[in-house]
Amino acid sequence: MTNIIKAVLKINPNAQLSVSDNDVNTIVWENGTTPISKADIEAQLTAVEFDTAMEDLRTKRDNLLKDTDYLALSDQTLSSAMTTYRTNLRNITNGLTTVDNVNNVTWPTKPSE
Q: Which structural domain, as residue segments, surrounds residue 41?
């Protein structure tokens, strides 16, 4: 799904449209969807970019957590360093408000098991 379509759907989740080359000037409104102004769509693009960056960040974070899940089973004892690492991973999205914040996250270093 293109960023243009995501921006439109943030404004009107029921909108039906097509777009070529992720270009706001090529939108074709379908099935009686009321057109949304170019300015309103473009205003949503920053939010869409942030949402996408956060989705990517969460996916990476979730995979890093998954890589250490076996250490948190009831028959394992989690080291203090590993507990801190996993907590830092879970908290990595706290306070992020811009794409630049997301792109400049400092990832915690995984301790030895």
A: 3-103
Domain assignment present for residue 10? The answer is yes
- Are the C-beta atoms of residues 62 and 108 closer than 8 Å to each other? no
Q: 112 lies in a domain?
A: no
In whole angstroms, what is the distance from residue 24 CA to residue 57 CA? Answer: 27
Task: Tell me the whole-structure pTM to 2 decimals.
Answer: 0.80
Residue 16: inside a domain: yes
What does the pLDDT profile of the chain (113 residues) look like in tens digits? Answer: 899 999 999 999 999 999 999 899 999 999 999 999 999 999 999 999 999 999 999 999 999 999 999 888 877 788 899 999 999 999 999 999 999 999 999 999 999 87
**What DSSP element (H or E) covers 24?**
none
